[in-house]
Amino acid sequence: DQQVKQNSPSLSVQEGRISILNCDYTNSMFDYFLWYKKYPAEGPTFLISISSIKDKNEDGRFTVFLNKSAKHLSLHIVPSQPGDSAVYFCAAISRAWGMDSNYQLIWGAGTKLIIKP
Amino acid sequence: NAGVMQNPRHLVRRRGQEARLRCSPMKGHSHVYWYRQLPEEGLKFMVYLQKENIIDESGMPKERFSAEFPKEGPSILRIQQVVRGDSAAYFCASSPTATNTGELFFGEGSRLTVL
């Protein structure tokens, strides 16, 4: 029972173009979403997050969009750079559960992004 | 300015042996979390510890797995009598306080292979 789904195992994008990574969720209790980036043989690193009270959050080349009615979020990277090649994980938490549960991130399976030169 | 340190990075065990994975959190962090990643899957929460206390072990298998975070020294995830299905990457993360944003600092992981 996957509550967070990343349906594209991999994505290949030309350098300089826009990368769009998608994530769907099923649990309407989720109210905070995060994207983590992971290089091979390294741990995930936090990239960007969004609260359910917003529909967009931007940080430099990275923008996350949230569509609550569709239970869908996406990460846009523009322009894409070779160093962006990594696995991107979408994760969700429900802060409504209370602080004690806010570390229990529910993760998608990840999308491997390949930036072609 | 060390980050979260995990060792060993790679561990090979035969079925029935014990595996011990260690995690030193970032300096100043007293909250430690263990996650497991099976091949082709996302990370799954296992256990949350503060110094000398297990706060939440709801994600940890009831048997063979245990975790501790002593007053001195690293946090240890212990797997007794390992089986092939335990082969995975085990990630430790830390935070300075009980996080309410999910923003965790992860180590590089320990990759356990059970033969």
Outline the structure in words.
The complex is a heterodimer of chains A (117) and B (115). Chain A is mainly beta and 117 residues long. Helices cover 0% and strands 51% of the residues of chain A. Chain A is built from no helices and eleven strands. Chain A has strands at 4-5, 10-14, 19-25, 32-38, 45-51, 56-59, 62-67, 72-77, 86-93, 106-107, 111-116. Chain A is globular. Chain B is mainly beta and 115 residues long. In chain B, strand 7 (65-68) and strand 8 (75-79) form a beta hairpin. Chain B starts with a strand and ends with a strand. The mean pLDDT of chain B is 92.
Counted by DSSP, the helix tally of chain A is 0
What percent of residues of chain A adopt helix (DSSP H or I)? under 10%
> How many beta-strand segments of chain B?
11
- Chain pair with largest interface: A-B, 27 and 32 residues
DSSP summary, beta strand count of chain A = 11
- Assembly type of the chains comes to heterodimer
Shape of chain A: globular
What string gives the helices and strands of chain B in order? EEEEEEEEEEE
Poorly predicted sequence stretches spanning 5 or more consecutive residues of chain A: none
Detail the topology: elements first, then pairings:
The complex is a heterodimer of chains A (117) and B (115).
Chain A lengths: L3 E2 L4 E5 L4 E7 L6 E7 L6 E7 L4 E4 L2 E6 L4 E6 L8 E8 L12 E2 L3 E6 L1
Parallel strand pairs in A: 2-11
Antiparallel strand pairs in A: 1-3, 3-8, 4-5, 4-9, 6-7, 7-8, 9-10, 9-11
Chain B lengths: L4 E3 L2 E4 L5 E6 L6 E7 L5 E8 L2 E4 L8 E4 L6 E5 L8 E8 L9 E2 L3 E5 L1
Parallel strand pairs in B: 2-11
Antiparallel strand pairs in B: 1-3, 3-8, 4-5, 4-9, 5-6, 7-8, 9-10, 9-11
Give a concise summary.
The complex is a heterodimer of chains A (117) and B (115). Chain A has 117 residues and is mostly beta strands.
